[in-house]
Specification:
- It is a single chain.
- The termini are far apart.
- By secondary structure, the protein is mainly α.
- The protein has helices at about 5, 15, 25-50, 60-95, 100-120, 125-150.
- The protein contains six helices and no strands.
- It has one domain (about 5-150).
- The longest helix has about 35 residues, at about 60-95.
- The protein is elongated and about 50 Å long.
- It is about 80% helix and about 0% strand.
């Protein structure tokens, strides 16, 4: 027997109204959760190796590589779902002017994160790399806060 939220969409009924599959919201949440948790685990790496702070715990060796791999996979997952969201959900919200400010902020943060990824991979200047990694981390934290503000039900 399937959980109740697969039969009657409760997480975000708007997705079901817009024609998304019933499992779309849980799949989106799993991707976002993986992305944010792995990103949070990578913050000590940024602070230790880029900002040269002495922290009591930093993921090392295989753990750091595994966390980074999860972050990359979850990033691709969420970017694909963001593309699916843009087609129906974001366009409908913009046309109806529903939560369009937080939606535009989410889009801007996603684009900032997407444009910073090649910088993280290919910058050779250590100072620029440090600032690009810091901007990427701050944009990710901003994305989390904006996503919560966007998805939080508003009571009128």
């Amino acid at each position: 027997m399937q959980p109740d939220y697969f039969r009657r969409p409760r997480l975000w009924p708007k997705f079901a109204e817009q024609g998304y599959p019933k499992a779309f919201a849980p799949i989106l949440l799993v991707g976002l959760l993986g992305l944010f948790l792995s990103g949070a685990l990578l913050i000590p790496v940024l602070l230790t190796y880029r900002w040269e702070l002495d922290l009591p715990w930093v993921p090392r060796g295989g753990w750091r590589q595994g966390i980074t791999a999860v972050h990359h996979i979850a990033g691709y997952w969420v970017v694909g779902l963001a593309g699916a969201l843009w087609i129906v959900h974001a366009r409908a919200g913009l046309l109806r002017r529903q939560r369009h400010h937080s939606g535009r902020a989410l889009l801007g943060l996603i684009l900032m994160l997407l444009f910073s990824v090649p910088l993280l991979l290919y910058l050779s200047d250590e100072t620029l790399l440090t600032w690009a990694a810091t901007a990427h981390t701050l944009a990710g934290l901003g994305l989390l806060m904006m996503f919560l503000a966007h998805a939080w039900p508003r009571h009128r």
